[in-house]
Each structure stands twice: as structure tokens, then as C-alpha cells.
């Protein structure tokens, strides 16, 4: 007998689709599983203006497989030169859903990010007035701060002061990895949400480093110790609407992962929903999966939920593809380290 679970079609509130041949290779996995996705703007060069976002959106639409039903929700990459009026206009026109803040140097393709947070004060104030959400990569970049502490220090030194200085600004703390972030998000009455990835619910830093270094488990923010993973799992399955799915599926071709200085990013899109079903089932919380994947995100962004549903079914363990071929080279798919009994019904 197969067990089935019907849920509203999920959305991915944090996704990297890249461009060109990689975009064409990785897009089908997300378009199959998700109705909408917040598409990250960290291309080279980054997506900074409304016009660039429109052009990128059109390239994504053109790369969609025949018959796909997938809506890319575009973001702008915040720089110290960002024009507040361009942001507000692009949001009002429905072209852009959110703005993304990368501290300069914090992660993949973040060189054009913000160095001096005082210089984006004006933009953030306009965004708060106009109701434009800010998605934040929450890590400090100070070389004196240990990489495992960079998220917690960011909350204290940057995020909390920024939120206090800009009342009404709606903020998503992206890809939270620590109990500190979970506590901080829960402490906010309003205007703060957080995305949680699939991989941070599954791996801790031992998976990355013990018994050999595993480049395909390397991402930023880096996976933390087990107690933090437990805090993330509790938050994800709690039913608290401030926490929702953002896979941060971040494909890099294998040649750029399996090298002396490998890129940060884990490609989870092809297995995201089966892995989540396993996690929620293990936590005895399958009835809360739909909230996490399909209801809390739209509620935060003020968007309608998807009317369409998908069916997950449980049966024999399946072996997902180890990698996806793209015109730029193969991209290894996240291996959760346990068998997947759940799959998305075609
Ligand atoms: N998460 C990652 O490790 N990498 C992301 C960037 C990001 O989301 O920080 C990427 O673009 O590859
Ligand atoms: Zn990030
Ligand atoms: Zn990301």
C-alpha cells in the first residue's frame, strides 16, 4: 500500500537559477516541484536595476520547458548606489518582489554588496514606506569573526540595529543556520520571517568535515553543530508561520566544487520535496509540511496561496540522479545520506 499526501503546490522562497547553459540545465527541477520561486540576483554582473530584472525574468521564461507552470519572482541586488525610486517603481509594477542584501564578500558573487550599511539607510527607509521586503544574507564578513559565529554576530551588530532604525521594514532572514537566529526570529512580533533550507535540516558540520572533506556539503552560511540543526528542525516543523521553505538550491558545476578552493552552494532542487517529506515524517509532523512549503511564505509576502495541489507518495526507496548534466558541465545533486521513500507524483 502506498501512503499519499496531497498538499498545495509548494513555492521556493530562495533559489539560485544562474544563467545561460546552467539555467537551462537546472530550471526544470524547480519548475516541476514549485509553482513560484524567489530568484536570487547574484549573477555576474548582479541584477541591480529593474531593467536588468526584467531581462533576467525573460531569459528564465524562455528557458522553461514546454508546458511548465512556474513563475519566477524577481529580486534586485542592493548596492550602495541603488536608486530608491527604481526599486519602488519596479516593485509597484509587479516586476520585482523583494530586494536582496549581501554584505560585501559574504558569499558567492557578493563583491558588489554592501560595505557601509549607513549608505543604504535611505533605500531601506523608502522600502519600508512602500512595503518592499528585504531578503538578507545574514553573516558578517569581518575576518576576525570565526566563520561559525558569523550569523549570530550579524544579528547583534547589523540586523537588529538595522531593523530598529527602520521601523516597518519587512525582513526575511535567509537560510538561517543557528539556534540564535531561530530565537531572534521568534522574538519579533512582526515584520520578520526566515527561510530554512532543506540541507540545513539534514546535515551538520560533521557531515561536511568528519572522515574527509565533502565539497558538495559546503555552503554559506556553513552548516553548524548538531544542536543548531535540531533548533532548525524544531522551527521548521513547529507550524510557526514565521518560518518557511527557501531551498537556497545553489548549483555550481562539479569542477568548481571539487577543487582546492571550492565554491559555496548545494544543489538541492531535484530532491527538495522528497527529502522534506522524510524529515517531516521523521519528526511526526507530516501534517505541518504544507504550512512550511506552501502557506507561510505566501502569507509573509502577502501573495495568494497556490490553488493547485501536488501529491507526494510513499513507496519503495528511489535512487535520485547523482548529478544533472548542463551545457556548462555536470552539477552534483544533494545526497541526504538516507533513502528517499517519498516522491512527487507526476
Ligand atoms: N548558499 C551558498 O552557499 N551559495 C549561494 C549564495 C548564498 O545564498 O549565500 C550561491 O549563489 O552559490
Ligand atoms: Zn546567502
Ligand atoms: Zn542563496
Automatic annotation (TrEMBL):
Zn(2+) 2 binds at residues 100, 137, 175. The active site is at residue 248. GO terms for cellular component: cytosol. Keywords: Hydrolase, Metal-binding, Pyrimidine biosynthesis, Zinc. Zn(2+) 1 binds at residues 14, 16, 100, 248. Pathway: Pyrimidine metabolism; UMP biosynthesis via de novo pathway; (S)-dihydroorotate from bicarbonate: step 3/3. Transmembrane segments: none annotated. One of its GO terms (biological process) is 'de novo' pyrimidine nucleobase biosynthetic process. It comes from the Bacteria. InterPro entries: Amidohydro-rel, DHOdimr, Dihydroorotase_CS, Metal_Hydrolase. Residues 12-304 form the Amidohydrolase-related domain. The modification N6-carboxylysine is found at residue 100. It catalyses: (S)-dihydroorotate + H2O = N-carbamoyl-L-aspartate + H(+). One of its GO terms (molecular function) is dihydroorotase activity. Binds 2 Zn(2+) ions per subunit. Gene3D superfamilies: Metal-dependent hydrolases. Its EC number is 3.5.2.3. Substrate binds at residues 16-18, 42, 137, 220, 252, 264. Pfam families: Amidohydro_1. Homodimer. Belongs to the metallo-dependent hydrolases superfamily. DHOase family. Class II DHOase subfamily. Catalyzes the reversible cyclization of carbamoyl aspartate to dihydroorotate. HAMAP family: PyrC_classII. This is Dihydroorotase.
Amino acid at each position: 500500500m502506498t501512503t499519499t499526501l496531497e498538499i498545495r503546490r509548494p513555492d521556493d522562497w530562495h533559489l539560485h537559477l544562474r544563467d545561460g547553459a546552467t539555467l537551462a540545465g537546472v530550471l526544470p527541477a524547480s519548475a516541476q516541484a514549485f509553482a513560484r520561486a524567489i530568484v536570487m540576483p547574484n549573477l555576474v554582473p548582479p541584477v541591480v536595476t529593474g531593467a536588468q530584472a526584467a531581462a533576467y525574468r525573460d531569459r528564465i521564461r524562455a528557458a522553461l520547458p514546454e508546458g511548465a507552470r512556474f513563475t519566477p519572482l524577481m529580486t534586485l541586488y542592493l548596492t550602495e548606489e541603488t536608486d530608491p525610486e527604481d526599486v519602488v517603481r519596479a516593485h509597484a509594477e509587479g516586476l520585482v518582489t523583494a530586494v536582496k542584501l549581501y554584505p560585501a564578500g559574504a558569499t558567492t558573487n557578493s563583491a558588489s554588496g554592501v560595505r557601509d550599511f549607513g549608505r543604504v539607510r535611505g533605500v531601506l527607509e523608502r522600502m519600508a514606506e512602500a512595503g518592499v521586503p528585504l531578503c538578507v544574507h545574514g553573516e558578517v564578513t569581518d575576518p576576525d569573526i570565526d566563520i561559525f559565529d558569523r550569523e549570530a554576530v550579524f544579528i547583534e551588530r547589523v540586523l537588529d540595529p538595522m531593523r530598529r532604525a527602520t521601523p516597518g521594514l519587512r525582513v526575511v532572514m535567509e537560510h538561517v543556520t543557528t539556534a540564535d537566529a531561530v530565537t531572534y526570529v521568534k522574538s519579533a512580533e512582526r515584520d520578520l520571517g526566515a527561510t530554512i533550507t532543506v540541507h540545513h535540516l539534514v546535515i551538520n558540520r560533521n557531515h561536511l568535515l568528519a572522515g574527509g572533506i565533502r565539497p558538495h556539503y559546503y555552503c554559506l552560511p556553513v552548516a553548524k553543530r548538531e544542536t543548531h540543526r535540531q533548533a532548525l528542525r524544531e522551527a521548521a516543523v513547529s507550524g510557526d508561520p514565521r518560518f518557511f521553505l527557501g531551498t537556497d538550491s545553489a548549483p555550481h558545476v562539479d569542477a568548481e566544487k571539487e577543487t582546492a578552493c571550492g565554491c559555496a552552494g548545494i544543489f538541492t532542487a531535484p530532491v527538495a520535496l522528497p527529502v522534506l517529506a522524510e524529515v517531516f515524517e521523521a519528526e511526526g509532523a507530516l501534517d505541518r509540511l504544507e504550512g512550511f512549503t506552501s502557506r507561510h511564505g505566501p502569507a509573509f509576502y502577502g501573495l495568494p496561496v497556490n490553488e493547485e495541489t501536488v501529491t507526494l507518495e510513499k513507496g519503495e526507496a528511489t535512487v535520485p540522479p547523482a548529478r544533472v548534466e548542463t551545457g556548462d558541465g555536470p552539477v552534483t545533486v544533494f545526497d541526504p545520506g538516507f533513502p528517499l521513500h517519498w516522491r512527487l507524483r507526476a
